[in-house]
Fold this protein.
Amino acid sequence: MKIAVIILTALLISPVSAQISGKSVEELIYCPCGCGEILANCHCETATEVKKDIQGKILAGSKPEDVLSEYVKIYGANILVRNEEVARSKSDETLYLYLAGIGVTAAIAYAIGKSSRKSEDWKVKKR
């Protein structure tokens, strides 16, 4: 039981290593139309075409890093989303996971603590 608690806690606390995939390329660049939206959140015609192009290149075997660098060569470094915005969107997604982990850890700690109590320990001793 204690091993399961340790493993669960370690999984919830450790950051998940994110690899660049086709979808995350869309999260790392702005829409080229100039609207200021992150490509993954934009639904204009340009965004739809660029998303299809990215997915086509990924399916054709291109590495996501290469696709990203290709768009940087075409549109310049200003197309890249700043790290703060990516971190903010990722933290919104993982907030509920952390809250659930805290709740589960608290429930397990309560159950372990309750099972280890003895009724004699809580009685008031008379002198």
Q: What stands out?
A: The helical segments are 2-13, 22-28, 45-59, 64-75, 83-116. The chain has two domains: 20-81, 82-112. The longest helix spans residues 83-116. The CA atoms of residues 16 and 52 lie 27 Å apart.
